[in-house]
Amino acid sequence: MRKLIFLLLNLPVWLTAQGTTYTIKSYKDEGVKAPNTHYLGEAWLSHVLEADDTLDYNITKATFKANATLDWHKHVTPQVLIVVDGEGCYQERGKDPVRIKEGDVVRCEPNVEHWHTSSKKMM
């Protein structure tokens, strides 16, 4: 009798768990080629997560091919660069450029003009 009660109590959980769908995206997807409006070279954008009613930020993976550069630009919200592979440069207007490499995280404050690039020789 205990087994029957156990199965009946858990049946609603099993029914809802089996019907649940998830939206799963991979940051490993290269995405779509970015328009060359602010880029020199090749850059690819993958919109991993997009803002909605419950999430107030976007996560976009940008893949820069060797020697690709995004020219001077700024954002109205903070931007966080997380270097997951390779190396490049980052510079804010009025400051010296810095080398960025795999594992580095850079926070750019709102309305701060900056640019970033990949190195000429990618790993």
Automatic annotation (TrEMBL):
Signal sequence residues: 1-19
Keyword Transmembrane assigned: no
Domain of life: Bacteria
Gene3D superfamilies per the UniProt record, alphabetical: Jelly Rolls (2.60.120.10)
Domain Cupin type-2 residues, every copy: 63-117
Keywords for this protein: Signal
Matches recorded under InterPro entries: Cupin_2, RmlC-like_jellyroll, RmlC_Cupin_sf
Protein name: Cupin type-2 domain-containing protein
Organism: Leeuwenhoekiella polynyae
Higher taxonomy: Bacteria, Pseudomonadati, Bacteroidota, Flavobacteriia, Flavobacteriales
